[in-house]
Amino acid sequence: MPVLVASDLDRTLIYSSAALALTMPDVRAPRLLCVEVHEAKPLSYLTETAAQLLTDLGDTAVFVPTTTRTRKQYQRINLPGPPPKYAICANGGHLLVDGVTDADWHASVQARLAEECAPLAEIREHLLRSADPVWVRKHRVAEDLFAYLVVERELLPDDWVKELAVWAENRGWTVSLQGRKIYAVPKPLTKSAAVREVARRTGAELTLAAGDSLLDADLLLAADRGWRPAHGELADTDWTAPEITALPERGVLAGERILREFLRTVRQPT
Q1: What is the pLDDT of residue 270?
Q2: What is the pLDDT of residues 90-111, one digit of tens each?
Q3: 169: phi then psi, degrees, rounded to nearest 5
Q4: Which SS3 state, helix, strand or coil, does residue 111 take?
Q5: What is the per-residue pLDDT for 172?
Q6: How far is CA 13 from its chain centroid?
Q7: How confident is the model at residue 1 (pLDDT cuts 50, 70, 90)?
Q8: Cα dihedral sign for 95, 97, 98, 103?
Q9: Measured by CB atoms within 10 angstroms of the end CB, which terminus of the chain is less buried, N or C?
Q10: What is the DSSP string of 115-145?
Q11: CA angle 224-69-138, nearest 5°?
Q12: Within 10 A of 40 (CB to CB), how many other CB atoms are there?
């Protein structure tokens, strides 16, 4: 039976220059491969060693990129290895099969959100009204499914995200702070639901996962084994669970370590 490997991308497998965490002496820094260009500028990287590990992983398992990115943002990424047959975008709102949205899956997600959550328009209006232009740089809606802000972290009031989370909780939404982005996402919009659907379609009996943020917690809990790096929301809150390994590495070297763990487990699942 195939092994399914579902991994978050940003700050889990791929890293912006600000998130690389190259704390070693320059002469010992790993060689990097750019895997995303945006507006003619390099944006995301992994190590060359990680690139080879990911290629090997794609040859031996069902590798499923699992991201909160929109489809357009995901399609900017040029990962090494065989093109994944399945990819999960918009935090589970879109299941791509050979790069094309599965319309039935998307319709089922939309129906559940309409039934269980406050509407996106209400959430967006609250964000526009309550977020201070002093520290907000952008207001964005992603795929008509969720909203996020791009902020200046050093100017962000300490309690604002916590207060937003309490407000959103009562409306069936969750809040996550990742780098310079504050996400407001409907609770039923989960990576884990889409991963379970891929597991059903592929017949996978073992699912491995990795992620760094609050939006990855459900993904990790749904997996048979999971890993998280020493950075991100989950590390900051000491989040853990059975079958989840908290790795000591931070930054781009954590991405390399996660891929080593994936590959080792795929080859020796016991």
Answers
A1: 66
A2: 999 999 999 999 999 999 999 9
A3: -55, -40
A4: helix
A5: 97
A6: 9
A7: confident
A8: negative
A9: C
A10: HHS--HHHHHHHHHHHS-TTTEEEEEEETTT
A11: 140
A12: 5
Partners of residue 244 on adjacent β-strands: 226
- Per-residue model confidence as pLDDT tens digits over 124-149: 999 999 999 999 999 999 999 999 99
Query: How much is the mean pLDDT over the chain?
Result: 96
Distance of CA 97 to the CA centre of its chain: 18
What's the burial of 12, exposed, middle or buried (CB within 10 Å: 0-12/13-18/19+)? buried
Residue pair 95/102 in contact (Cβ under 8 Å)? The answer is yes
If you count them, how many residues does the chain have?
270
Q: What is the pLDDT of residues 228-250, one digit of tens each?
A: 999 999 999 999 999 999 999 99
Alpha-carbon separation of residue 77 from 14, 68, 120, 237 (angstroms): 9, 13, 27, 29
**The two three-digit tokens of residue 42, written as one number:** 């390099």
Structure-token pair, residue 75 = 């399609």
* Position 79, amino acid: L
C-beta separation of 258 from 13 below 8 A: yes
Per the listing, tokens 């990424």 go with 77
Question: CA nearest 142: which of 187, 87, 184, 97?
Answer: 184
Reported as a single tens digit per residue, the pLDDT across 4-36 is: 999 999 999 999 999 999 999 999 999 999 999
